[in-house]
From TrEMBL:
Pfam families in alphabetical order: Aminotran_5
Gene Ontology molecular functions: cysteine desulfurase activity; pyridoxal phosphate binding
Family named by the database record: Belongs to the class-V pyridoxal-phosphate-dependent aminotransferase family. Csd subfamily.
InterPro entries xrefs: Aminotrans_V_dom, Cys_dSase_SufS, PyrdxlP-dep_Trfase, PyrdxlP-dep_Trfase_major, PyrdxlP-dep_Trfase_small
Source lineage: Bacteria, Bacillati, Bacillota, Negativicutes, Selenomonadales
Annotated organism of origin: Selenomonas bovis
Name by which UniProt lists this protein: cysteine desulfurase
Cofactor(s) the protein requires to work: pyridoxal 5'-phosphate
Length: 411
């Protein structure tokens, strides 16, 4: 697609080689590559005004504070938060989800309460809730899947009950690549008085997200999956909920007054941002938001859809390929394709693809319960982004056709 070619020039890493071959980078679900604009913003911060934000009265520190707080404002506008104080910077989505689990979950849940999550969650939106359940005595319930990989409507209706105090759900499954109707799930959660935590790790870089429209109480994502550096993540929370929650980490910057035996805490958002923060990451995040908004999500979605529509019919023609979550009838398929090559371990598949310069992910993708539920040990995953081209898909499929031959199987 012409668009992808246009953006490709901005990504220096994609013009290097892997194993002596041009790179077909199809592991965007794990992390995305960074455009020149983001790299420049990070280098500009470290080369031009690196200083500890919020702490100094001198010009460099003031500038670092401005960069950091501007990132908060840009992030708030990007996802439709009502005020910048509703944006808490974390190191990644995992920390953001843990913040909610430790601070909201451990404080508000008790024996007799129920937490409802889906079987398609990444471990980052599953293990913290297990911990809350074990620590508080609350029960952990699961929404399971329809045969096509979508969440069971019946489970959404019957598992979320008057006992439910918290519902946590991913907006897009990182394995099946299917969009969930998180607006409907949030409405159901609210109808029984529960809060709804949405994991936006696989959505926010690929589609327009508006937390008001979803009516999510909490929304978490990682910068590195949306063109920004590693080490910066975001938790959005409704102001009143965040304001009522105790801090998650204690230390510098999150306090108002510290006495020998007592401390009063800072207002939002500082209450949840203990210690020196990732200002370089925030500078990169702002540049990434500028970059994404400059392109527009309609174009990004069109590129990914074109690649999926191009790849799936070809994959379906290959009798040795098994696909998961690839029924496109409901129109909620994103640019993530999970698959296996029959009789071949996913790690072997990924290694053979690697030798041709094609990067895909292999393993359980931090979703062991989902794989177990699907009756799989592991899978491979190709995941597209705005710089991928049909040529990348061609190279991936050409390499797949060789896999069984390399291992001495017939076609
Ligand atoms: C759906 C989902 N949630 C959470 C995460 C965790 O993200 P991070 O490792 O950046 O914290 C991932 C990462 O793959 C993910 O795909």
């Amino acid at each position: 697609m012409a668009d992808a070619q246009e953006f490709l020039k901005d990504f220096p890493l994609l013009h290097t080689e892997m194993n002596g071959r041009p790179i077909a980078y199809l592991d965007n679900g794990a992390t995305t590559q960074k455009p020149e604009q983001v790299i420049k913003a990070i280098c500009g911060y470290y080369g031009g005004c690196n200083a500890n934000p919020h702490r100094g009265a001198y010009a460099l520190s003031v500038e670092a504070t401005e960069i950091y707080e501007n990132a908060r404002k840009r992030t708030a506008a990007f996802i439709g938060a009502k005020r910048p104080e509703e944006i808490i910077f974390t190191k990644n989505a995992t920390e953001a989800l843990n913040l909610v689990a430790y601070s909201y979950g451990l404080t508000n849940l008790k024996q007799g309460d129920e937490i409802v999550i889906t079987i398609a969650e990444h471990h980052s939106n599953l293990v913290p809730w297990q911990h809350v359940a074990h620590a508080t005595g609350a029960a952990l319930k699961y929404i399971y899947l329809e045969p096509d990989g979508n969440l069971s409507d019946e489970d959404i209706e019957t598992k979320i009950t008057e006992r439910t105090k918290l519902v946590a759900c991913t907006q897009v499954s990182n394995v099946l690549g299917l969009k969930n109707d998180v607006k409907k799930i949030a409405a159901k959660a609210h109808s029984v008085g529960a809060v709804c935590v949405v994991d936006g790790s696989q959505s926010v870089a690929h589609q327009k997200v508006d937390v008001q429209e979803i009516d999510a109480d909490f929304f978490a994502f990682s910068g590195h999956k949306m063109l920004s550096p590693m080490g910066i993540g975001v938790l959005y929370g409704k102001y009143d909920l965040l304001d009522a929650m105790p801090p998650f980490l204690m230390g510098g910057d999150m306090i108002e007054y510290v006495e020998e035996q007592q401390t009063t805490y800072a207002e939002l958002p500082a209450k949840f941002e203990a210690g020196t923060q990732n200002v370089g990451g925030a500078a990169g995040l702002t540049a990434a938001i500028d970059y994404l908004e400059g392109i527009g999500f309609d174009r990004i979605e069109a590129i990914e859809k074109d690649l999926v529509d191009y790849a799936l019919p070809q994959l379906r023609e290959l009798p040795f390929i098994e696909l998961y979550g690839c029924d496109t009838k409901r129109g909620n398929k994103t640019g993530i394709i999970a698959f296996n090559v029959k009789d071949v371990h996913p790690h072997d598949v990924a290694t053979i693809l690697d030798s041709t310069g094609v990067a895909v992910r292999a393993g359980h993708h931090c979703a062991q319960p989902l794989h177990r539920y699907l009756g799989l040990n592991a899978s491979c995953r190709a995941s597209f982004y705005l710089y991928n081209t049909r040529e990348d898909v061609d190279r991936w499929i050409a390499a797949l056709k060789k896999v069984r031959g390399v291992l001495g199987y017939g076609a």
